[in-house]
Design brief:
Elements lengths: L9 E10 L2 E9 L5 E8 L6 E2 L4 E4 L10 E9 L2 E9 L4 E8 L4 E5 L7 E6 L8 E7 L9 E6 L6 E7 L14 E4 L4 E3 L2 E11 L4 E10 L7 E4 L10 H4 L7 E8 L4 E8 L3 E8 H10 L5
Parallel strand pairs: 5-9
Antiparallel strand pairs: 1-2, 2-3, 3-4, 6-7, 7-8, 8-9, 10-11, 11-12, 12-13, 14-16, 15-16, 16-17, 17-18, 19-20, 20-21
Length: 296
């Protein structure tokens, strides 16, 4: 994003969904007041986007969805319907919300059974035994607590069967790169060997926190079973636009688009300022997580 020309001060941590030859986006943007907002976008090449005004968020009864701020969305299709999963402050703290859209501009927010404080939620793109499954990261106001939990729901409204899926720092494993916290990234990718989960992990340094990108593998039939998890980061801040910005040294993945040939395009927030794009393949991600499996 050319910050000198854009009316938005920062554009990062955003969701992008490819459908019928068009890249539809739900951007996290901030103007100079610092308040996070959700703005739609559209592109033919996945790089150059047209921006719109903030999306319209309505409750199921047609009233306006009242919130202080909204940010870090993910877009996913489940049973032919497009949903945005995002974080918003409604009750004095960030929590998880789900909204359905048919045009990527107008969203109907569903009543959701998650309480503050929670964030980094993502839906699986298919049901398991007739239930929706979602990952999230419950956290205290300081966000110093950071483990990924898994939950399920019969209707996207009532969520239960909450269970710890992935922990972050395990001293005996020396995985210091995720010592502070972890959080789910894009919607998991289905492969023959299981569900690939791209996630972010945070390490504390003398300067500040450093956000890196990692990979885990979940069981194909039972996503509550963790098969493998990388003992090191897949990506960490290195480029200038990743190490310099509003919040330096941050990589925050929210989107992973893949095709039938196994190509994967990862969109990630860079330094809480811009959006970076990285290219890989399903085979390379599987090779990485199995080769560097923390639990082998």
């Amino acid at each position: 994003v050319d910050l000198k020309k854009s009316k938005y001060w920062h554009v990062f941590n955003s969701a992008i969904f490819f459908e019928d030859g068009v890249y539809h986006a739900l951007f996290r943007v901030e103007t100079k007041d610092g308040c996070p907002r959700l703005v739609p976008g559209k592109s033919k090449d996945g790089i150059n986007f047209e921006y719109g005004e903030p999306v319209c968020l309505k409750n199921e009864d047609g009233t306006d969805f009242q919130y202080s701020y909204a940010y870090d969305p993910r877009l996913v299709k489940v049973d032919g319907k497009i949903y945005a999963v995002f974080c918003a402050d409604v009750y004095g703290g960030p929590s998880v919300y789900i909204a359905e859209t048919k045009d990527y501009v107008n969203y109907t927010v569903l009543k959701c059974g998650f309480l503050p404080f929670n964030r980094n939620a993502v839906l699986f793109p298919e049901k398991f035994d007739g239930k929706y499954v979602m990952l999230s990261r419950p956290s205290a106001p300081s966000t110093n607590f950071g483990k990924i939990f898994i939950s399920d729901s019969p209707d996207l409204h009532y969520w239960g069967n909450h269970e710890l899926l992935m922990t972050n720092f395990e001293p005996e494993k020396r995985n210091f790169w995720e010592r502070i916290k972890i959080g789910a990234g894009p919607a998991p990718i289905k492969t023959k060997e299981g569900w690939l989960l791209i996630y972010h992990a945070v390490q504390g340094t003398v300067n500040a926190w450093t956000y890196s990108i990692g990979v885990a593998l979940l069981d194909l039939k039972n996503p509550r079973k963790l098969i493998a998890k990388g003992d090191r980061y897949l990506m960490t801040p290195e480029e200038s636009y990743e190490t310099i910005g509003f919040c330096p040294n941050v990589l925050f993945p929210c989107t992973a688009i893949h095709d039938e040939e196994g190509h994967v395009t990862i969109y990630y927030g860079a330094a809480d300022t811009n959006i970076g794009v990285a290219f890989t393949t399903i085979d390379k991600l599987l090779e990485f997580v199995k080769k560097y499996n923390l639990y082998k």
